[in-house]
Amino acid sequence: MVYPQVRKAIGVGRMALDPLAIVAVLLGRKKEVLSLRMHELQDRLPSEQLVTRLEQTLITAVAQVGVDINAIAANPWRQAPLQFVPGLGPRKARQLLASIAANDNHIKTRMDLLKQDADNVFGASAPTDVAQMGRTVFHNSAPFIRVRRGEVAALQNEEEFDAVDDIRINPEEEAMLQIILDEAFPDMAEQGAVADVRTAMESPNNLLQLDLYAVADANHCLYKLQTWVDMMFEMLVPYGELRLHSAVPSDEDAFYLRHGETRESLKDGKLVEAKVVWVGDTEVKVVIQNNNMEAIIPQAFASSSSAGQKLNEIFKPGMVVPGRIRNNPETEEVYYDENQRRRYTVTLTTATEALENFDIWERRYCCDIDRAYRPHPSKKQQQQQQQQQQLEQAQRTPSRTA
Question: Against a cut of 0.70, is the pTM above it?
Fold first, then answer.
């Protein structure tokens, strides 16, 4: 009989050693993770939707840190994350663990997992008892399966494993990986030696001094340049985090996140259509048609010619009006709520002069960015050009006298 306190102590210890494994266990068949109170509003969502989101998060986490296949084979309590490896699932994970258990409970290289067939392009060695993956499954899951001695006591007397099996580089990219290594260590290539991933990890300066663009161009692989950059980063910082550190979004960032927009999508001068929902004494509240965002039209931006005219004489609820976004941080008015916190909102102008002034926006977003761009002449410029052409034609035509 195991006392509850002992089970709790074991759980706490395992959580300290491998928290991802414990969280993955809670997302098993019984879905015990749903009993955790992570948010006060989580009961308002269907349990199926919560489980789906949690599974997606676990898949991302497992892909980020990888799974030490030999460690989980030797420790059954650490096996839960294997089913969340991209390309696998509960059934494939169980089959893989069973085959590894029948093979002295460990493997030497990721290539041992690949089935042999006529279409194999990975260059795998002779088939083994643990070869359970087809080509597609292997392609999707292999980068996130780590093969190493690690902390497994039974493997400490084994010879050093290949470092390429302990980083997130797909085996089908090993040919390109070798090109990078040969270019980074030309002295070894001249001596007939082959540089490997462990050599690159021990001498990162050779990688940092490599002109990766020139190497990709020389090998006609510029279309793979992003993959080459990822491969080099993985050798410099194995299983490193490419994303920025998380931070609490500002009120302005939260405003755009809630509406799925950015300052670029709501840039100053963009033409939109809006429906009037409320007319006040100093402003009009509208809803932009294409994204259902609330916006305001201040009295100063309502009209070009109706000075002194009341807003309820210009706008009526239910009207659909054209407008331009006014989103200039230097000139836009700042609004505050009842708690004196800044209220972020979209400001529109419906003044005719602003709506018809296409030249200023063409110059800002076309001419100022691309110097080779030639703006389309305005109506006034077209009239002036026509008058100039008529005058020149009249001067060239000799006058006729009776």
Answer: no
